[in-house]
Amino acid sequence: MNHRPFEDWLLDDQPLTPEQKRDLLSHLRLCTSCSALAESNLALHTTQMISPTPGFSDRFKARLVRRRSEQKWRQMVGILVLVLGGLGLISWLAGPVIQEALSSPAEWITTAVGYFLYVLTSLQALGEAAAILLRVVPSFVSPAGLFVILMVVSGFSYLCIVSIWRVNRLPQGV
């Protein structure tokens, strides 16, 4: 049964033609979902609006100002942590290179080449280890086991994404 036009008619505050009214009433006799929607809509339209308590807007504005200042504070702390962490990481990675750069140019070139070779061989070793694992793991783990492992990793990734989203989302409402 197509409820779409009847739901639209019930929820819109537009006047209906006599034919639309007749179709709507006959549909409401048959459809419990639409009749419940009509009752809810009628109840919402007949309720009396109450005025807010005195000082509501002042309290709301004060709370809004407080939340904005808390949000700015959290953002400043987050940026500070990010900058300090980035500077620490850069100094940790580039520290040996900078230390050697302050000495003679020959030592600097030797250190840079050694660092480049270290990174290159580390990446090659990780690639070889991954290739070996990809060749060996399927012989030990059944396809169902691989599926379970994949689902666990996917679930963990989903939890991380949701956690990051919940921490970073802006509060809505009052």
General description of the model:
- By secondary structure, the protein is an all-alpha fold.
- Among the domains are: 4-46, no CATH class; 141-174.
- Helices cover 83% and strands 0% of the residues.
- The chain contains six helices and no strands.
- It has helices at residues 4-11, 18-30, 32-46, 56-101, 105-140, 143-168.
- The longest helix has 46 residues, at 56-101.
- It is elongated, with a radius of gyration of 33 Å.
- The mean pLDDT is 85.
Keywords:
single chain; 174 residues; mainly alpha; 0% strand; elongated
List the topology elements.
Elements: H1 4-11, H2 18-30, H3 32-46, H4 56-101, H5 105-140, H6 143-168
Helix pairs in contact: 1-3, 2-3, 4-5
